[in-house]
Amino acid sequence: MNIQKAETKTKETFFMTEADSLKESTLRKLIAKTINGTQAAEILQLSVRQVKRLKKRFVKKGIKGILHKNRGKASNHSVPESKRKEIIKIIKTSYPDFGPTLACEKLTELHNISLSAQTIRTLMVDNDLWKVKPMASKKFPHVWRARKDCLGQMQQYDGSYHNWFEGRLKNALGEIITINCLLCSIDDATGKITYAKFDDNEGVLPTMAFWQEYIEILGKPVSIYLDKGSTYKNNPRKNAVNVLELTQFQRACRQTGINLIHAHSPQAKGRVERLFQTLQDRLIKELRLKNISTIAEANIFLTKVFIPWFNRKFAVAPKNSSDIHTGLSEKEGLINKM
């Protein structure tokens, strides 16, 4: 079957999405008989009948045959030119480094402009405010570990050093502090941010204070999944004096019955790593819009505004609806273990 003729008859140029590219490559394999119709349907998540119709159009019209019929035409719901100019001006002025999704949310929330994220994305691309990012190819994709079943079963914990305040944070002498640490725990079963706070570092004292506050609010988790940092796990190779010595944090967790699980790579604690990627985009911009310039203000904003919003938007339902946090006994308590 010759489909090349249909593609080269004219010099039309088409914009192809990732989905279009997948359709093209799959149909070429189908025509070359390296896969069958059932396999093509599974790849494209279509019925076999739909694939047959798509193949017929592809053979007849080439690439044009698999693109949406309205591609390149003015939409019946297109944005008026005056509104387009208004939106572009707002984005350039207030949200120049925002992605389309976040810009769309802010236009709705603060400017009463309700359009789809895809429409905002198209406007931004057309006006050089956003560049389409190519998909990263992964030869050996990481297989994600299955989530735990219940809220409180396992918390992924880590700290992220970053310029969270973009130069607005100052010390007592008025000097700008460019790097601060955000401590954060995310529930493995639900993806909820269970607790977060800004601190100077992720050392022993901030970590102990973090989990003391966490337990006072939510109770004791069954386990904590964390980095192999020196705060959390003593490294016998670096301790020639006493290879059996445990860190204060390990000792406190052992005495309170919390199981510590140590990750051996960033991929192993992927959910908290991906969380920080999201926060380094969204949280920084939210702090900027609120003009927050102190750790105290930031921690209040985290607790009262950002974390509830984040959990409503991104959390998932657990397999089991039980919350298995437990209280501390009278003999337990991280504050007494410091």
From TrEMBL:
Residues annotated as domain Integrase catalytic: 137-338
Leader sequence segment: none
Domain of life of the native organism: Bacteria
InterPro entries in UniProt: Homeodomain-like_sf (IPR009057), Integrase_cat-core (IPR001584), ISNCY_transpos (IPR047797), RNaseH-like_sf (IPR012337), RNaseH_sf (IPR036397)
Pfam families in UniProt: HTH_29
NCBIfam families in UniProt: transpos_ISNCY_2 (NF033594)
Protein name per Swiss-Prot or TrEMBL: ISNCY family transposase
